[in-house]
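Narrative progress, year one. The postdoctoral researcher (J.K.) led the effort to move from monomer predictions toward full complexes, under supervision of the PI. The following entry was the first complex the group processed end to end, covering 405 residues in total.
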Amino acid sequence: MPTAEVENELRRTLARTAAGFESLDQARQRLLQRDYHPGRGTRRLAAGITAGTAGLGLVLGLGLSGVFGSASRQPSHPAHAQLADWTVVKQADGTVLVRIHEFRDPAGLQRRLRADGVPASVVFFPGTLRPGEPLTDLVHFKGNPCQEYSGGESQAPKVVTGGSPFTVGMFLHPSAVPAGAGVQFVATSNVGYQQGPQHIGLVEWLVQAAAQCTGS
Amino acid sequence: MDWARDAAAKRQFEGFAAAASDALLRTGYLMTGDGRDAEDLVQETFLRVARRWNRVRTMDHPAAYARRILINLVLQNAERRSRQKAELALPDAGSDAADQGAARALRHVDDLAEFRWALAQLTPRQRAVLVLRYWADLPVGEVADILGCSPGAVTGTASRAAGRLAEILTSRERPATTPSTRQIMDGES
């Protein structure tokens, strides 16, 4: 146990640091405006990051300087594809880590995920959510080639774990995908009711595996 | 739970989220060193609480349950990447001197960004012990319960973490920028 003096200094310094969270009010407002309604999909929002400037937002927000400089390098490992728009890393245990810097080239991301063993569909939501419409409605767009996988709601949290793909990254677990199922990601930057267009919405849900949806 | 049919549950959840968000955000901020990551963590925490709201709403302390989820999210992220460094053990001898050094180093923290950076150099588990014990002011037993370890492990980790913080704060080699999310979540230093 640290001495009482060290403990007091820790308490004081941690309290000062926590109080120094300057954007706390805005973060709280955004959090409280979101929809946490349990649905078929899991909503993942990148707060304050527009589709066009997501990379810039991350650089500024995290104080990084090297992330996007390295993004253009060729992959040094066959299981590691690093592109400007997103990063997919297949790990030794088969888990796939996905980070999205800018939500572009969904077809490329879809191909990469399938190559890494994830039966995936990645699409942009073609419309605009109406005010008050839950993000989970992203999956119900006209012409969606995927159908809901029956019973997938309970399995989905095992297939996709981790935090936001826009910052900390999300983990996909191919081994947890039920036989005959796949995972669809639907994204939009048109989350108009979430304080303007500065948000990207991403919903994932389990779907029936099919050639027109997950490729097989 | 179908919130469309249970407006009271929805309102209750919203009340919980409003009351708990500040403390959760600050906890996330201390654990990650970054406001955006803290927001992501709290969002994920709220999603998980919402999924189990029927059960959580009957708990005596839903906010404590949410805090446990948030801490575990950070720890799980680090474990999944499985590159977490072993906690640095200070030698048994000279612990008094180490404590004096820690107190001195902490007393002279002027730049909070530097302290956040130093905190991020600790392993996620060390960070969790310091944040839960000295910011959330939880008893040792409760910290041990959250982290799934013994009270002795909590006090030992707290000592080592404080010593390591002092080492980092008195080191001359510090980066000009705050650490990246990946570094923080990996527990790399």
